[in-house]
Amino acid sequence: MITDLREMMEERLLAYRTRNRDLPQRILVYRDGVSEVCPWCLFHPAMSDIPSVQGQFSIVVQDEIPKIRASFRKFDTTQSQYRPKLTVVICGKRHHTRFYPTEAANGDHNGNPKPGTIVDRGVTAIYEFDFFLQAHGGLQGTTRPTHYYVVCNEMDMNADDLQSLTNTISYTFARATKAVSLAAPAYYADLACERGRCYLHKLLMGISDVTTTATSGSTAEEEIFREAEKLWNGGVKGKLKESMFYL
Amino acid sequence: MNLVLSAHPSRAQAGAGVVVGRNRYFFPSASPPFPLGGGLEAWKGFYSSIRPSFNQLMVNVNVCATTFYSEGNLAEAMHSFEQASFGARMSAFVQRIRVRTDHLGHQKMVKRLAKFSAKQHRFEAQELGGMVTVEEYFRRSKLLFLLSFDKLSSFRYLEYKITLRYPNLPLVDVGGTKSVYLPPEVCSILPGQPFRGKLPDEQTSEMIKVSAKPPNVNANAITVAGLRELGFARGPNVSPFLDAFGVSIGNDMAVVPARILTPPRIRYGKGEPSVDERASWNLRNVVFAEGGKLGPWTVLVIKDGNRYDEFNDAQDPELRSTIDGFVSMCRNCGISVPQTPPLIAVAELPRRDLQDPLRTQAINVIRSALMATKQKPTLLLVILSNGDKHIYSGLKHLCDVYLDVPNVCVQSAKIRKERGQLQYYANVALKVNMKLGGVNHVVDEASISKLRQPSTMLVGMDVTHPGPSTVKGTPSIAAVVASADLRFSQYPASMRIQETKKEVCWQFWSSHGAIAHLPIF
C-alpha cells in the first residue's frame, strides 16, 4: 500500500501541467512491488502465492485506485471536473513461471525465448487480463519473463495494444541502450526506491540512535520512525526534485 | 491441493527435505550444498505450487536456490561472516539461529547477541567463590556443576575446563525470558537452517553464480530431479499422498502458445542504430535526441587507501586525461560542456574504524571538501575509490537531501581501465544527460501513437520494505514517477517514507482462514 499516494500523484500531475500547460487525458500506471513479501508474511505457509484481485492485488484496487482518483479532484475547476481515464497494470518479476522455446528458431543462442516474447494463454489467469512479457534479451542464466496484470482499464486498452505498448516502453529506459525487463516507468520507480534506501541507510544497516525503550508514551518503533524522518529530512527538494536525480 | 502436493517433499522420509517459506523444497542429499564462505552455503532445490488454469489444475515447478547456515562452530561462523562483510552486523547473523551447546548438549535458539564479550561479562559464580568473567568461568570451573535433574532423581555432573579461543567475541543470549549468556564457541550450528538476513556482497555474487544456469540445464533439472524429489514422477517412487487422493501429475511441461513482438525503432538526434537480436544497440555514431547543458561543474576524487586504483591528487596527469576523455564523449553525444575545466576537489577519507561502521567521519570529510570549493556545481562527478556502500549511501544522502547538488558516481578502477573505457564513459554520459534534463533516445512515433491521442501520462510506482536485519520500525519507502514531457523521456519522482503496515499482512492471513495457525517464533 502507498500511504501518501494522493499527494504524490498530485505532485506528478502538477509537474506535468507546469511543463505541458495541460493535464493528461489518460493515465497509464505500472505498479511494481505488490507481491513483494513483507517481513511479517515471509514464512506463513497458507498464504497463497497465486496472483489475483482477491489476494495481494486487492490492496491496489481497494486502497490505491481510490487514492489516485482522489488526486484528480485537486484539478477540478468551477467549469469542469478533471476525470482522466485510468489504467493500472501491476507488474511482477518475483514468480516462478519460465518459458522454454519448443523450437530453436524461437529462442536465442542460449535457448532462452527471444526478446519480445508474449504469453497470454495457457498459464495466465482464467478470467482476468494478464500476460507475461519478456522484453529484454537474456544475459546469463534462464530469463525471467515479467508478469503484467491489469486491475483497472478505463482506457479500454485491448490486449494487443497494451502488450505492444508495454514492449515498446521497455525500450525507453534512458540509462541503457537496450530493452529492459520491466516497463521503464516501473523500473524508474524501483531506482527511486533504491535511492531512498541510501537516505535510510543507517537504519537499514540495523543501527539506530534510539537506545531507551518506550519512554513517555511513545513506543520504540515510533521513535525509530521519527529518527527515519530526521534522516529523510523532507526528501529531495528544490530543482533536483524535478530531475531524474535517482538514475 | 498445495497441501496434498507438499505432503511428500516436506516429510523427511524421502531425502531429508527442508521446506523454506511457502513452496520451496530442498533436498541436500540429492544435491550437495555449495559453500559460499562467511559461514554460509547455497542449497539448490525446487519450487512447487498449484495453479488454476482453464479447465484444469497445473503445477508450477521451478528450480530455486537459497542460503543456509553451514553446520559447525558458531564462533568460527561469526568470525568468518564478519570477515566476509565489513560492517555487517553479527547480531543479524546469529539471531534466531538454532544451536547445540557442546558442553551440555542442549539445543537452544539464540535470542540475541550480547553487547559484551566473555572477557568483559562478569557474574556471580558461587562454586568459584564470587564474581568471575565468563572466560575465567569456563577455564577455572573444576567444581561439579549441576546439569540436569531427571525423573530418576539422580544428578548428573559435568566439569568444564575450556580455554576460550575467541574470548573477545560477543556472547550470545540463548535464554528465554531470562537471559542466559554463552560464548559462541561452545555452540554448534544445527543443520538445515535457512539464513534470512541480508547477504554480504561477495556471497550475493557467489549465489548468482550458483543459481544462474542456462535454460536447458534448468529445464532438465525440473523434469528429472525436480519431479523425482517432489514425488511427482510417475512410477514406483511417486508420492503416496498423490495416490491416496487419486491425483496424478503429467510429467511433461505444458506447451503454451506465444508470440514474438517486433521491437520499436530507436531514434536519436543523429543516427538511427539498429536493434540487434538481443534487443540492444550501441551509442556509436549517434547524438542524443536532446543534449543537456552542463554549467560549471566539479570533480570530487575520493581517496580511501586504495593506492592501486585511485588518482594521486588533483594534479595527477592521468586524472586530467580521464576527465578529458569523458568530456569528449559527452560532447560527441551532444551534451554541451563548458570550455572551463571542472573544479577538482579531493577528499582524503579517514581510515575505517569499527567504532564508526557507517563512516560518518568520512562523510564529514567529503562535506568539508565540497564546501571548500565555493561553487555550487551544476553537476558533481564523484570518482569513488572502492565499492564501499556506506560511502556511496552517505554521499547520495548528503548531495540529494542536504546539498541539492546533481551528482553522478563512477568507480576509479572502472573509469581508468583502458579496456571498455569508452563504453564506461558512454554509460556515465547516459546518466549525465538525463540528470541535466536531456533526452537520450526516443522510440518511433508509430509505436507510441496510442499514447498521443488522447494525451497520456505514464506512471511508475514501487514500494520497498526494510527487510531482515534492519532496525525494527524502519519505514517502507514509496516512489511515484511520471512522464513530464511529451517524449516520454523525463520522469521526475515523488518519494515518501511510510510506516510498514502490519495490518495489511494480518488481513491477508485472516482472509485465507489461517489466522489460527500463525507460527510463533
Please explain how this structure is put together:
The complex is a heterodimer of chains A (247) and B (521). Chain A is α+β, with helices and mostly antiparallel strands. Chain A folds into two domains: 178 residues, Nucleotidyltransferase, domain 5 (2-Layer Sandwich), CATH 3.30.420.10; 48 residues, no CATH class. In chain A, strand 1, helix 2 and strand 2 form a beta-alpha-beta unit. About 5% of the residues of chain A have low confidence. With 521 residues, chain B is α+β, with helices and mostly antiparallel strands. Chain B folds into four domains: 113 residues, no CATH class; 119 residues, paz domain, CATH 2.170.260.10; 154 residues, Rossmann fold (3-Layer(aba) Sandwich), CATH 3.40.50; 65 residues, no CATH class. The radius of gyration of chain B is 30 Å and the shape is flat. The C terminus of chain B is likely disordered. Classes of the chains: A alpha+beta (247), B alpha+beta (521). Chains A and B meet through helix 1, strand 1, strand 3, helix 3 and helix 4 of A and strand 4, strand 5, helix 6, strand 17 and helix 10 of B. Strand 1 of chain A pairs parallel with strand 24 of chain B.
